[in-house]
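User: Run a structure prediction on this.
Assistant: Running it now.
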Amino acid sequence: MNLSLPHVLVVGAGPVGLAMAAELARYQVKVRLIDKATAPSDKSKALVLWSRTLELLDRAGCAGAFIDAGLKASGASISAQGRRLAHIDLAAIDSPHPYALMLPQSETERLLAQHLAGFGITVERGVELADLTPGRDRVTARLRQPDGREEDVACDWLVGCDGAHSTVRHRLGMDFAGSAEPSDWLLADLRIAGPAIVPDEIGIFWHRDGVLAVFPITAGRVRVIADLGGAAPGAAPDLASVQAIVDRRGPAGTVLSDPIWLAYFRINERMVDHYRVGRVFLAGDAAHIHSPAGGQGMNTGIQDACNLAWKLALAVRGIGHGGKLLDSYDSERRAVGAMVLRNATRLTHAAVLRNPLGQIVRNGLVHLLGELPPVQQRLAATMTEIDIAYPDSPLNRTARGAPEGRGAPRAGERAPLDGDLARRIGAGADPKFLLVGGDGGGERALLERFGALVTVATPDATLPQKYGAGTGLWLIRPDGYIGLAAPADGWESAAEYLAMIAA
């Protein structure tokens, strides 16, 4: 089959590759998406879509299908010795989606593939990346078709979304530095019943033997995860062994049944030291893997894709082809990946702590601090990923006289999502910055010069509350982060900023 040469070849059709291809297609970039697997996985794997990911799916135009298919979890609790130490309520977070959306990864992939098909693109299954040759002006990829025939494809850019055992990463000779946690873990997807089970809440139970976590999937069905403190006792767990662990560590009266997936797994914590090699990029598990504590892995990968897609779309249009724009993907997302890995490691180590005195101290501190509203707010913002920001991004600019003080959006921060702004940021087929505020004096000239890069927000009643009632000017990136903060008359700063992006 002789397909037109793509601008971007995406390798790997898990959630990250599907999100990458869909965002590129939305931006009218010619894209091919290949996966060596002949069929999508039927395993649930990752279970949660956090608020920030749902915001990005909103701007992609497909969040509604996910919300209709998922279960909204209102919060999470940590318990030990029969008492609740802390509760994290997600309802108060500053997001249109103040909850965790529980959805099996197989469903997430199905819905992303459905969204991608709306752009006329399907996954080329059974197609394997045999080799790649990066060049100055293009990447040449050798693809092996299901019948063994090989095809050489030239593309402008290649993105490896092909998981922890990434062929793209191996072909580039990149180190995947890190280590494996020493103990094995148990995973079970099954039905649950019991007087203490909260159907719309994530439950974490700390015990002297280790941790037990219960994640809702659908009504009455959950995922149970527990560390074993050593090597797994056999090839796979059975229902009786899972029930025994729940009886010991979980709430009394809990009954398990109808298992559909039982497995042991081991945690690896690894990360590459750069996400870009010339015209080749890595995203998702190809670039970073870590403990499932916090449920951040798939979400971090999808957000990798949303960060890179608009930058590649501009590069394909000849904008920002060789400047800071594409380099910023590595610096921004590598910093986020490192933070997520650190947080997941700390959560895991706290959960599996076995020293009795250490457990007493841990439980006391969590119970004490977990009651404080600022701590609860911080935990909720971290869990839902709405606090992810790019404070050190090379794309940030703060002009002299920019609004300061409480609530004023700053460069690198996630833009406040109120009213019209929530609908306008990054919407449509062109990856444009959104101009918010300004005194109007230089708007026309800016649009005449940079119309391919910027559009103007339509203010509504909530805009002055979030953006200082006409005291400033902001440029919001297509992925919803503040690029420039300037005073209301900062038109020259806006022009200089957009010229930097376009270089």
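The chain has a mean pLDDT of 92.
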